[in-house]
Amino acid sequence: MNISTLFQFLASAVWLVVVGMIFVMVMRSSRQQPIKGLTTVFIVLIVVAVLLTTIGAGVVFVEPDQLAVVITITQGGIRPDPLQAGIYFVIPYIERVERFSVLRQNYTMSSVADEGQTSGDDSIQVRTKDGQMVYVDATVIYSINPAEAVNLYKTWRNGFQDGLVRPQSRGVIRDVASQYGIEEIVSTKRAEMETKITDELTRIFAENNLILQDFVLRNIRFSDEYATAVEQKQIAEQQAQQAKFVVESKKQEAEQARQTAQGQADALVISARAQADARLIQAEAEAKALQLIAEVLKANPNLLQYEYIQKLAPNVQLMLVPSDAPFILPQLGPQTVVPSAIP
What we know:
By secondary structure, this protein is α+β, with helices and mostly antiparallel strands. 55% of the residues lie in helices and 16% in strands.
């Protein structure tokens, strides 16, 4: 309870006592009882009541979150400077005050019932550049400009919310959003659109003695037809992505199979080359061995006969062979001696 309210309360209490005194005086007069003493009290109470009422009407207490504009019969009908937080005295019954809140206020326009200042669907209908209909939910957060409170009162009184904030906000949102296509509004250009709306509302509010604190683009809703089309498009895109994934999987499987087959073929080629190289090395070694044997036999013609005799030696006791015989006859038996004419 501030001091202005206190004086008004006391004045009301005294006036109630005055009414009670009148009732008592009327009753006593009707009974022919003296009221001389009550008359004095009655006059005193009336004076006190008038005094308290006058003081209560003149004392103004401005809350810390308020400022007040003084309406008067002089100075053009309004004091040039608003009253800040504190206690003031105005001329009773001649001057009065209009209070404004300096706190931030918000105005919400929403499609959700009972969410905004207006019940029911209060979203902004916007026709986009490509002819689609969208519904925008938004909140405007603003405050009055304390330095321009007097001009605000002169222009709008207390009707600036319904007369300025609401219509200007809805108009600017429609004008800016209509410059974009629906795909841009919901994706790539949403932030840009919100910035343009904020800048335009800041300018308009400043021209009308208000300060735009923030603009919130709460939600953008499509028409039912477009929402169905978008949903179908998203389903088709998901199916296309799934099909692409399957194709890529098949390609990867085919590539893996090709690489496996290539590896096996490369392994077979390497194995064949190794076998061929081994056979070539073996053939070269055999050829070199035969070449060496031929060279040895050429240098020692009787070596072959000697080696042959050595293999037959365990079963041969005596053998006469002509010196120029090209062959050695095979063994006939363990005690057989093959005679040969000696030249």
